[in-house]
Design a protein that fits this description.
The structure holds two protein chains of two kinds. Chain A is mostly helical. Chain A contains eight helices and no strands. Chain A has a domain of about 60 residues. Chain B is mostly helical. Chain B has two domains: about 110 residues, Rna Polymerase Sigma Factor, Chain: A, CATH 1.10.1740.10; about 80 residues, Arc Repressor Mutant, subunit A, CATH 1.10.10. Chain B is globular. The two termini of chain B are about 20 Å apart. Classes of the chains: A mainly alpha, B mainly alpha. At the A-B interface, helix 1 and helix 3 of A face helix 3, helix 4, helix 6, helix 9 and helix 10 of B. Bound molecules: zinc ion. The site of zinc ion (ZN) has 5 residues of chain A, from helix 3. Zinc ion binds next to helix 3 of chain A.
């Protein structure tokens, strides 16, 4: 069996004793109750902590201003209800309503403006494509077309047939070429 | 003021004190004014321990009492007035520190320790020497407390500077008692290992 002095409180148990002695195991509490040495260690640590608190109190300055309380309670129920918190709440609600109203109007205007704009853009695009197609068909301005004879109404279909033979003829030509090739 | 006297004045367990809180709760302004007289220095010091600036502590103390005056009707148990005041105070202090941290983003200087006019240490005036000791003490306290986590620091201050019981601290911080004890244990373990604290205590108690 250990001698009593061998069961002195260690540092952890000493701190535990300061925090709450009742949390120590019963055997340690029993030792603390009868060991003068451990009790002195605990009391010294407690005194250090108490001194620390006392020093803080001693070196803290004194307040130089008195606490001012508001005047007697004379607020009516109306003003109690309409305190600053309520006022902020009301303001926020009004702001929310206005935002929703304006938001709806703006969205509607945008939508109307957007539909008109879209239609005109489509028309513009169609006009542009027509011009592009015309240029693809004939890139020369009218004046030059007349000089070049492109616009000459005398040139009939037969003339064009002569210039650009139809596909059937080309097929024949092609066939001929194929046959010719085979003949060679 | 001795700790025992301080604790008796502000712990709020006497029948007379409970009656005073109940009167204040019922809208009696004079009763509340008496509570202010009784708690003013105590709450001011509590704020100062955490802010370490007299002027800021005065403004925050004013705010705390104003808030308490507006909310006194909501207090449920008059015997817990001190803890209730501490809850309000800690919230106001947290607000202040949050704003201060935000402001410090744009400033280079450390505002933690209030700057005073320079004091000649070799002055014959005892007030001048006291002032030097005071400033040095709070500078050291700041350094020591910075070694604790925020929770350890708060629990330590509440227990040994403000003299609240473990049960009161648990109520103020809205934690269970075993959590409070754990933080207090850790704070004390760090405190005991810190040679600067012993040195400081030796200096100031000489
Ligand atoms: Zn022992």
């Amino acid at each position: 069996m250990k001698r009593d002095h061998e069961n002195h409180l260690d540092e952890k148990q000493l701190i535990q004793a300061i925090v709450d002695q009742a949390d120590l195991p019963a055997s340690v509490q029993a030792h603390l109750a009868k060991c003068r040495q451990c009790r002195l260690r605990k009391e010294n640590f407690e005194r250090e902590l108490a001194n620390f608190g006392q020093m803080a109190e001693r070196y803290a300055p004194q307040p130089q201003k008195r606490v001012r309380l508001p005047a007697h309670e004379t607020k009516s129920t109306f003003w109690t209800l309409l305190n600053w918190r309520s006022a902020i709440g009301v303001a926020a609600t009004v702001a929310a309503v206005l935002i929703v109203f304006w938001g709806t109007t703006i969205v509607r205007n945008l939508s109307e403006h957007g539909t008109g704009g879209l239609a005109s853009e489509i028309l513009e695009a169609q006009r542009l494509m027509m011009e592009v197609n015309m240029l693809v068909d004939n890139a020369l301005p009218v004046f030059y077309l007349e000089i070049s004879g492109e616009n000459n109404p005398d040139y009939d279909e037969e003339f064009y047939q002569f210039l650009i033979p139809p596909i059937e003829n080309e097929t024949l030509t092609s066939d001929r070429w194929k046959r010719g090739t085979s003949l060679c | 003021m001795a700790i025992s006297e301080n604790t008796t004045t502000t712990s709020g367990t006497s029948a007379q004190f409970v009656s005073l809180v109940n009167q204040a709760k019922d809208g009696n302004r004079a009763a509340f004014a008496q509570l202010v007289d009784r708690f003013h220095e105590y709450i001011f010091r509590m704020v100062f321990y955490r802010i370490r600036s007299r002027m800021d502590a005065e403004d925050i103390t004013q705010d705390i009492f104003l808030k308490a005056y507006q909310k006194i009707s909501s207090i449920k148990d008059a015997t817990r007035f001190r803890g209730w005041m501490f809850s309000i105070a800690l919230n106001r202090i947290r607000d202040f520190q949050r704003k201060k941290r935000f402001r410090s983003l744009f400033k280079v200087t450390d505002e933690n320790i209030e700057s005073h006019a320079p004091v000649e240490a070799d002055s014959d005036q005892p007030e001048a020497l006291e002032q030097v000791l005071r400033e040095d003490f709070w500078r050291q306290i700041g350094l020591i407390l910075n070694k604790l986590s925020s929770m350890e620091r708060e629990v330590f201050l509440l227990r040994f500077f403000d003299h609240l019981s473990i049960n009161e601290i648990a109520r103020v911080l809205k934690k269970n008692e075993s959590t409070i004890k754990t933080h207090l244990y850790r704070a004390l373990a760090k405190f005991k290992k810190e040679p600067a604290i012993r040195q400081l205590l030796n200096e100031v108690t000489q």
